[in-house]
Specification:
Elements lengths: L6 H11 L4 E2 L2 H6 L13 E3 L4 H14 L3 E4 L16 E4 L6 E5 L4 E4 L5 H9 L3 E2 L12 H7 L6 H4 L6 E7 L5 E5 L11 H5 L8 E8 L1 E2 L3 E9 L2 H13 L6 E6 H11 L9 E9 L1 H17 L2 E6 L3 H12 L1 H5 L5 E4 L9 H14 L3 E7 L4 E8 L4 H20 L18 H20 L10 H5 L1
Parallel strand pairs: 2-4, 3-4
Antiparallel strand pairs: 1-2, 5-6, 6-10, 7-11, 8-9, 8-10, 12-14, 12-15, 13-14, 13-17, 16-18, 17-18
Length: 464
Amino acid sequence: MKTMLTKEILSILSAVVGEERFKTTAEDLVTYSYDGYLQEFLPDAVLFPKTTEEVSRIMTIASVHGISVTPRGSGTSMTAGSLAKKGGIVLCFSMMNKILEVNAANRYAVLEPGVVVAELQKAADALNLFYPPDPGSVAVASIAGTVMTNAGGMRGIKYGVTRDYLLGLEVVLPSGEVMKTGTVTCKDVAGYDLTRLICGSEGTLALVTKVTVRLLPKPKAKRTLEAIYDRIDDAGTTVAKIFEAGIIPATLELMGNTVIRAVEDFAHMGLPVDAEAILLIDVDGDPDGVEKQSAQVAEFCRENGARDVHLSSSDKENERLWAARRSVGGAMGRLRPTCVVEDSTVPVSFLTAAIKKIKEVGERHNVQTAVLAHAGDGNFHPFFLCDKRDEEEMKRVEMAKDELVDFVLSVGGTVSGEHGIGIYKAKYLPKQLGSVTLNLMMSLKNAFDPKGILNPGSFLEHAI
C-alpha cells in the first residue's frame, strides 16, 4: 500500500538535498511522469542527489516510512521502467554525472550513474580505448540506466552487451545500506556474482551510485558498407553467408522499406525509397584484416542479390552512412501519433521469418508496421504505428503483438533483447520463464527489498 508523503516527511527529504534539488510543483512532476512508454504516472516528489551519502539517507528515510522510490536516469526507457507506477519519490541521478577515473594502464573506468554513455565513449577514445555498448539512445542514455536494462545496441553481435563490460558496482540497498560488488580486475570469482544479478534488474533490487566498466583497446581501422536490396529475403541470405564465412562484423543492421522511406522523408539523405531493405555493416580490427574482410562482405552482398553496394573510404564517410540509422527514432515518430516499439530476439536463422511474421500480423489486424533489426544477433524492432487515443486500434495492436510474441517464443527467442520488461511486456514473462523461475525471482526481490519500496509496480508484480 502506498504511504502518503506528509508535509513532515517532505520536509525531512528536502533537508537531505536542499530545496533546489527537491521538486514538488505540478510542472516538475509532469516532466518526470513519462518516458518512451504509452502511459504516464505522476510522482509525489522528484529528488536529485549528488552523492552516495545522500542516496543512502534518502533510502533510510524511505525504508522507515514505507515510501516508494523509483530510480531514473535520462528517462529513455521504453517500458515505464523509470516511472513512479505507485507514486512516491522519483530519484533522478542526472546530477551524479562525473567520470571519476579512466585508467588506461588497467583499461577500466569508474563513473557516477548519470554519466551519458556517449561521454564515456569520448573519454575512452581520447586515450585510444573503446567502450563497445552502443544503444540507439547513446547520446542521452545514462550509464546506470544501461546497467539496469542490460542495454545492448548495434555492436552486440561482436562485442556483447552492457553486462559483458561490468567489473563492479557501488549500490545503495532499499534499507539505505551501501554495498560494493566486484573489483577493477578482469577476473574475480569471489562469491556470488551480484554485479550481474543487479544488472538488468530494472531498479527493483538496488540503486546504482558508481559503475566500474571494462574498456578495450580501440580498433585500429573500420570500414562501413551499405548494401541495397529489392528483396528482404536476399538481405537475410547475405547475413547467413557472412557468418558461414567466419566473419563477425562489428555491426550488422537491417532497415525495412517503411523505415527507409520515413528516414529519407525526415533527413533527406538520398536513400533509395524503392528498396525493400538496406544492410548497414561495420567491419573493424587491424587494417589489413579490415580491408580483406570488408571486400569479402561486399562480394557476399553482390552475390546474394544486392543491387548496389557502397564501401566507405574514410571515418567521415562511415559516420555519414550511419547517420541514417541513428535518425530512425525521430523519423518513425513522425508517421503516426503513437509508435509502439518491440525488441524481441530470435535465433539468427529465424530473423527473416520473424520479419515476414511482422508484416503478416500487421496486415491481418489492420495495423501499420515497420521493421528495424540488429540482424547479426537476431534482435529486431517491430514498429506498430498507431494512435493510443483510438481504443479499438490499440486492441488490434495488442493482438498483433501477442501473435508475434507467440512466434518468437515458439522458435526459442525472448520477449526482450535489450529494452527490458517494465510493465510493457510483463504479461509475456510467464510464457517465457514459467512459475518456478518467477517465484525464485520474487524471492530474490524480497531478500533485497522486503518492504517492496523500490520501483514498485514493475515487471515481477505484473507477471506473478
